[in-house]
Model the fold of this input.
Amino acid sequence: MIGGFTRLLLFQGLGEVLSKFLLPFVPGPVLGLLLLLGWLSLRREVQQDLEMVSAAFSRHLGLLFVPAAVGVVMFMPQLREHAFAMGVALVASVLATVGASALLLRLLAPAADRHEP
Amino acid sequence: MSRELPRIAEIWVYLSGSPLAALILTLLAWQAGSWLYERSGRHPLANPVAIATLLAAAAITVLDMPYARYFEGAQFVHFLLGTATVSLAVPIHKGLVGLRGRVLPMLAALLGGGVVSMLTAVGIATALGAEPLLVGGLYAKSVTAPIAMGVAERIGASPTLTAVYAVTTGILGAALGRFVLDAVGARAWWQRGFALGVAAHGIGTSRAFSVNAEAGTYASLAMGLHGVLGALVIPWAARLLI
Done:
């Protein structure tokens, strides 16, 4: 578990350094993700400890969003004033996005792949 | 006897000033949210992130704790978002193996979904007269929070506000996505997962994983790809629109 976590931090660090000095338009974690992806496809298999840490992150991903989301308290006055506009924009936009993506997937999917296996 | 009361107050002052209080508060709120989510039979409307956020926000309001001080403790959880982003390489790597003819529809959904997300949100909010400060946070809202916050900084929008929208979008997508997916007739798990990942990033992915493993894998694939694409394209698109 610790080995997997260390490896993730290492790739994150590499990504941050790369973002800082070479590719400032891509966020460090994204570069770390791409580097790790490249490394995994070279190695062709995922080590067990990396798999475990990654599964743990997937399971508890939601927790990591809480600190930033609580920041809503700072924008309460403005948000309350424009609650209707922002609420409609957010709800309509997410429905349209799910709909558009799913529709494109369904229409462009290979014929043999359109339904549950 | 009279020495007892000031002591309790002192203990409280000490505890609430320590980063530990905010950290414990965040984790307790998450535990409560997860517990309610499980108890409701994983009902999409009982989203654990939404519950945890409401509980934690209510708690710091009642305790009169400024957000900056809350964040001093909660940042230890927040920091892991970057690491979690890197860890997405694992499900993406596994998802890439069985793609067959799915690459083209996936890229189309990614581009189409990304454009629809940005244009509808910014367009509707502007048309309804929301102020520019609030609208600026909407550009990156469908991108996973750690990346969205970085993009927001780059386009001169508020990272916190962007994170709030990203989380709200994630919660709404996780809660309502199912109805839209049924309405457009997307039945295959990989399609449902991918569409949810494009629109509702990490929170949609969490939701997809809790429903079906294949849906979860495709959702994390979509979220990772949308993150990469968003980081590259949104700053440029925002410059064109502003």
Notes: The two ends of chain B are 65 Å apart (CA to CA).
